[in-house]
Amino acid sequence: MKTMSIGNLHVPLPVIQGGMGVGVSLSGLASAVAEEGGIGVISAVGIGMTEPDYRKNFKEANKTALKKEIRKARAKTKGVLGVNIMYAVTDYDDLLKVALEEGIDVVITGAGLLLKLPANIDSSVLESRATKFIPKVSSGRAARIIFHSWSERYNRVPDAVVVEGPMAGGHLGFTRQELDKPQKDLASLVKETLQELLPYEQKYGLEIPVIAGGGIYDGGDMYEIMEAGASAVKIGTRFVTTVECDVADAFKQNYINSTPDDIVIINSPVGLPGRVIVNDFVQAIQAGERKPVKCSWKCLKTCDYRKVPYCIAEALFSAARGNFDEGFSFAGSKAWMATEILTVHETINRLRSEYSLAELSRDAVLAV
């Protein structure tokens, strides 16, 4: 299995653990993946809900919790750590500032085009190259728009890019029609993104890793997409059913108990489609039932809390704590493949074995 470098940052294992929000991937999971040589990612989305008094000041709770989780992860590993921050959250600027002040290795940003740095961040942070910036996109065109903007504004470009396909879990950067009848598979999206980034690699004399995510579950998936040109993979769903994942056991068991038919697409109240594991709560909202919404503050730019049928942050946090009467879990398209709870170390070893088996199988076919 190849290693990966993002500029001067060496990543021994080309696996980026997906940043799963509202209490799913915190310091426990992130530090364990980083310790195995991959990039462990803390999700900043709704992270303040882990603070007991978050309703008093959600914005401050988010900053406090993010700082705590980064420091807890740092105390457990010297590996590569990242923070995932949705561009769509209303306190994106503040969360990014906390991550940079804490010296995080990598910042991954999705749910919007990362065209520039916030006003409260000095662009000199780009010159230090201490923190790597990685936008998440769903097309080569989106990558081109971001890289063009950075090139014009800063005379440099992001350090890598994550291409997430339509088989991912959680909120998705595709329309319902595109999800029902995908026009391009992940390999095609990787290849088109590589082509879009080639001029910037030539202009700046560097290699820009393309990281593939969405539907990557086992080592076979990993081998195939890396053969298509990806430098690494982003895996979220498989790490949910690990000992170190920061959710309740009931959340992990929900994955293990699921079947392919249980993985469905819903319309999120924030205006995006999302992939979830169906349960009574999901069926109720699909039938038009409304749940009480007590919004501490408007956490997402696209959410009108006065009109939404339920609070998705509360629903996701309830599920993360094991309360499925009041929530549901996001999940990737292959969540049903989970059969047991393993440590991160055991999971990584299985990924390596599956990858090697896929590689040997391809070599055997070519030798015939």
Description of the structure:
With 368 residues, the protein is an alpha/beta fold. It has 2 domains: 4-248 and 338-361, Alpha-Beta Barrel (TIM Barrel); 250-320, no CATH class. The protein is built from 13 helices and 13 strands. The protein has helices at residues 27-35, 58-76, 92-101, 124-128, 140-154, 176-180, 186-204, 219-227, 237-240, 249-257, 280-286, 312-320, 344-367; strands at 4-6, 9-11, 15-17, 39-43, 80-86, 106-110, 132-137, 161-164, 170-171, 210-213, 232-235, 263-267, 273-277. Helix 8 crosses helix 13 (344-367). The chain is globular.
Spatial strand arrangement across the major sheet: 3-11-10-8-7-6-5-4
Number of helices: 13
Helix content: 25-40%
Q: Spell the H/E element sequence.
A: EEEHEHEHEHEHEEHHEHEHHEEHHH
SS-based class:
alpha/beta
Report the sheet-strand fraction: 15-25%
Write down the domain tally: 2
Architecture (CATH level 2) name of the largest domain: Alpha-Beta Barrel
- Please name the fourth-level CATH homologous superfamily of the largest domain: Aldolase class I
Describe the sheet with the most strands. 8 strands, parallel
Could you say which overall geometry the principal axes of the C-alpha atoms support?
globular
Rg value: 19 Å
CATH topology of the largest domain: TIM Barrel
The tally of strands reads 13
Which CATH class of the largest domain? Alpha Beta
Question: Roughly how many Å apart are the termini?
Answer: 23 Å
Stretches with pLDDT under 50, minimum 5 residues? none
